[in-house]
Amino acid sequence: MDARLNYFASPNPSKALKYFMSAGKALKESPLPAATQELVALRVSQINGCAVCIDMHTKEAAAAGEAPVRLNLVAAWREATVFTEAERVALELAEQGTRVADAAGGVSDEVWARAAEHYDEEQLTALVILVSFMNTANRLNIITQQPAGDYEVGQFH
């Protein structure tokens, strides 16, 4: 399968995408725990059906030492016992922030309040930006049918 577009083939789109990807790099340096970042990125990508991001974040998380059982259970996190309360609320916020059309109201006050119990303002800001970033990245990949399966850990670092 070939992608519909090569974002890096033209100077202006390439420049814009480099700025976009630098935002993703900055998120990696945020105080939001790295495991939470990968779990959230993976869950948002699962919801959106972005195979290339699922491939990337599964491999990055595994390389960082994430347990396979946790990666395998992200899609069913509500029934899984392997996530902390903080991770669970981050995943719920990510789902509500991704399914804004379905949820109509976006992230509920209840979920926001629970998230604020586990994350400080800087971490919450990073979480919100991460959910938004991943939704954008997913759409860029899905619209152009970017192929998945051959991502190598660290490829974009």
From TrEMBL:
Residues 16-95 form the Carboxymuconolactone decarboxylase-like domain. Gene3D superfamilies: AhpD-like. SUPFAM superfamilies: AhpD-like (SSF69118). It holds the Pfam family CMD. This is Alkyl hydroperoxide reductase AhpD. It comes from Streptomyces graminofaciens.
